[in-house]
């Protein structure tokens, strides 16, 4: 079936039949054709991302089963589904995440940013950029490494404990652990952003000192500024060490929970 044959009304009627369980074998073939029609748009988006020296991973299209499950789980029309095709980019931290998202927005004519850090979905935090390409929507998930560690833990919990855990249901202990893990990552990344802002301010102050030297500022004023900068540098170094320790602690705890799922170990209340 050609791309132009997939009208919005046709696709939405198809989605309604799957929601109600009234679909036929022909509907299954039509849904498969529709999801495959996203391949060209997916490749175009991934190509542009690779041009930014990033390394996206992902799939050309959701499976028909995943599409049907989402239709039945959510109040969404098939033509509105934004993640039939999608890829993922993992960056080091939240500062680089913001920078990468800004670059994505500038690289596409039509791109909508969904910041799930501000409104997490059952603990899930990331930034999704939905790009429209060739009349198809392609979702780009941008995660920090800690956000990705948490998301992988959630996926494993879904496999081991039950899929409801991803949507606010399932085992209470694991819901609580996932929630606490997500909050720990959020708190750390807020701290990370504040430290990055302070470091930027320190660089600006160092540049100001160089400018003052060139301008011939009198010695007492320059000495005061140098003393302040030395104090800043010391404190920023201490904070950087704290930041590294915190990051490792959170990553270690998420890895420990992953190991518990591997062994189906008990988690104490």
Blueprint of the fold:
Layout: H1 8-20, H2 25-36, H3 39-51, E1 57-59, H4 64-73, E2 85-91, H5 94-107, E3 111-115, E4 127-133, E5 136-144, H6 145-160, H7 172-215, H8 219-263
Parallel strand pairs: 2-5
Antiparallel strand pairs: 1-2, 3-4, 4-5
Helix pairs in contact: 1-2, 6-7, 6-8, 7-8
Description:
The chain is of the alpha+beta class and 269 residues long. The protein has 2 domains: 7-143, Beta Polymerase, domain 2 (2-Layer Sandwich); 172-263. Helices cover 62% and strands 12% of the residues. The protein is built from 8 helices and 5 strands. The chain has helices at 8-20, 25-36, 39-51, 64-73, 94-107, 145-160, 172-215, 219-263; strands spanning 57-59, 85-91, 111-115, 127-133, 136-144. A 5-stranded mixed β-sheet has the order 1-2-5-4-3. β4 and β5 (136-144) form a beta hairpin. α6 (145-160) runs antiparallel to α7. It is flat, with a radius of gyration of 24 Å. The protein starts with 7 loop residues before the first helix and ends in a 6-residue tail after the last helix. The relative contact order is 0.09. Mean pLDDT is 86; it is low at 265-269.
Question: What's this entry about, in short?
Answer:
This protein is an alpha+beta fold and 269 residues long. The protein has eight helices and five strands.
């Amino acid at each position: 079936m050609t791309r132009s044959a997939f009208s919005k009304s046709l696709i939405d009627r198809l989605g309604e039949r799957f929601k109600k369980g009234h679909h036929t074998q022909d509907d299954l073939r039509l849904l498969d054709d529709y999801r495959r029609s996203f391949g060209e748009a997916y490749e175009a988006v991934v190509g542009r991302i690779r041009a930014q020296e990033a390394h996206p991973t992902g799939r050309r299209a959701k499976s028909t089963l995943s599409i049907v499950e989402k239709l039945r789980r959510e109040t969404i029309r098939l033509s509105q589904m934004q993640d039939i095709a999608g890829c993922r980019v993992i960056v080091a931290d939240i500062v680089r995440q913001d920078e990468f998202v800004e670059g994505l927005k500038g690289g596409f004519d039509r791109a909508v940013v969904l910041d799930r850090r501000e409104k997490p979905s059952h603990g899930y935090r990331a930034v999704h950029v939905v790009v429209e390409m060739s009349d198809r929507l392609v979702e780009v998930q941008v995660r920090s490494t800690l956000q990705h560690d948490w998301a992988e833990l959630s996926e494993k919990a879904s496999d081991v404990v039950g899929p409801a855990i991803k949507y606010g249901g399932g085992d209470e202990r694991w819901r609580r652990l996932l929630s606490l893990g997500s909050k720990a990552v959020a708190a750390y990344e807020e701290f990370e952003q504040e430290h990055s802002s302070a470091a930027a301010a320190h660089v600006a102050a160092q540049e100001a000192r160089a400018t003052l030297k060139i301008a011939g500022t009198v010695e007492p004023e320059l000495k005061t500024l140098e003393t302040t900068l030395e104090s800043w540098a010391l404190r920023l170094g201490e904070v950087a060490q704290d930041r590294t320790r915190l990051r490792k602690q959170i990553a270690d705890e998420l890895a420990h929970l992953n190991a518990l799922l591997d062994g189906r170990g008990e988690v104490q209340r």
